[in-house]
Amino acid sequence: MICYVSSAMTDVSSKRCLQGRPFGGVAVFVKDKYASNVKLVKSAAGCIILQLDQTILINVYYPCSSVSGCDSELVDCLSCIVNDVMDTQYSNIVFGGDINIDFSNTPTRHLSRIL
């Protein structure tokens, strides 16, 4: 088994001992039989993008839901993902993770069209 991991806490954990609950990490485990067909497209804080043959796999952790301006940050995050996969040849996209957005709130209602 191969594990791809990304954490928003990399800078913090490299400077001091952690206290409290960690945040902002994502991981994708790939069985050995698929490992030779998987390509890492992007690994960033809170996001891993892999390609398995003609399928793009995106795992995202986005903690913001009640902070002011979080909807524009989410749009920025999604824009980066689009840019990262734009030059990749694929037939399918599997997008998952923990986005923490409430589409019933007025400020974020327009984001439901993007996702």
Would you mind describing this structure in some detail?
The mean pLDDT is 78. This protein is of the alpha+beta class and 115 residues long. The strands form two sheets. A four-stranded mixed β-sheet has the order 3-4-5-6, with helices on one face. The protein has four helices and six strands, in the order E-H-E-H-E-E-E-H-E-H.
Side by side, the strands of the main sheet go 3-4-5-6
Mean pLDDT: 78
Largest sheet: 4 strands, mixed
Q: How many structurally independent domains?
A: 1
Which CATH architecture is right?
A: 2-Layer Sandwich
Strand content range: 25-35%
Query: End-to-end span in angstroms?
Result: 31 Å
User: What is the number of beta strands?
Assistant: 6
The structure class reads: alpha+beta
Helix and strand sequence: EHEHEEEHEH
Give the helix proportion (percent range). 25-40%
What would CATH call the class? Alpha Beta
The CATH topology, please? Transcription Regulator spoIIAA
* Shape by Cα distribution: globular
Low-confidence residue ranges: none
Radius of gyration: 15 Å
Key features of this structure:
115 residues; alpha+beta; Transcription Regulator spoIIAA; two-stranded antiparallel ribbon; 26% helix
Q: What's the short version?
A:
With 115 residues, the chain is an alpha+beta fold.
Write the layout of secondary structure elements.
Blueprint: E1 2-7, H1 10-15, E2 25-30, H2 32-35, E3 38-44, E4 47-52, E5 55-61, H3 70-85, E6 92-98, H4 111-114
Parallel strand pairs: 5-6
Antiparallel strand pairs: 1-2, 3-4, 4-5
